[in-house]
Amino acid sequence: MNRRLPHWLGMVGIVTAAFGCDNVSFGGMSVSLEGPPRDSLDTEGGTSVIDPDAGPTRFRYGPLLYAGARQGDSVLVVPVGELVEGRLEPLPAGEAGVRLAEQILEERLMPSRKLTLFQQGGRVGTLTVSSALGTSSEYCSPRAQAIGTAELIPSASGSARFLALEQSVGEERPYGIFQTSSVERPHRIGIQNLGGEALNDLRAQWPGTLQNIREDLQVLRISDDQNPSIIGTFLFQDQMAVGPAPDPAYSLMILGELQGVRFTRAFTWYRRVGDEGKGAPRFFSKLDWDGDGEEELLLEVFGAESRWFAALEKEGGSWTLAFQDPCGAPGDGPGPS
Questions:
Q1: Domain limits, the chain
Q2: Residue 209: pLDDT band by 50, 70, 90 thresholds?
Q3: How far apart are CA 145 and CA 160, in angstroms?
Q4: Which of 37, 149, 248, 257 could form a disulfide with 266, with the two C-beta atoms 3.0–4.6 Å apart?
């Protein structure tokens, strides 16, 4: 494992706000000379590589995965990465990233374009783009962002976070049963026990009270597993936001799976600021975006100056860090495992 990668048809409507040419191939994502605006959807997939020195070019790229977070009656939507043969590939940084973000706004997030919305793995509605908000500077790689109007199944009308796929990809998926799981005492005890176990194994500095540094805890039902899983984040001398943290600070995120009558650690993220820089993750949402029958988990990670995305997937019975924006990759140290 590379630790351093680094129906319900009754719909309700809500207003949401999101967040001829010559071709040259760079091993996957195609780059072409500037031409008339068009949708550069690469339906054949392939490896995605962008040449940042290619000049005034247009990129040919595959379907994108988007993240959306509600803000009041609005939802901010931004692309997470490109789906290439089922894998989630990062968007480019720097000037190439800015140019691609502008192209995404022009081709994928223009008015009347539709995205299929998902929440906790299930299809819950459709977003129709109304206008673009430009390029966000909150992330360590440039991200396009747009606003639109969403139609949601009634049970998802109060959801705060969404994942989205372009309609050409997402509309093939059926509506499912949308369920939420509340955090109860056994989940709090479980994540507390797993957190203490992890700190001992890592020989990390203990806080005065472990419970006081738990910043996030969510209960999941992953894929067809009827047993609940838990995922929680502990932050020592830090906060779940973009901003600096002292060298002793660390983030600890744990995914726990129910085995019999107790939770066991299935994945551990540990990142100490003094060794690897700040990288405080929290669970965002889940979706089987690669179509293998197992849901992947999207994480939102907060750094000292920006934020980025990472993702976990289950392969061979074990959870691994399958994706992380390169700009957020840690330095030397134990990192996620």
A1: 12-170, 185-328
A2: very high
A3: 17
A4: 257
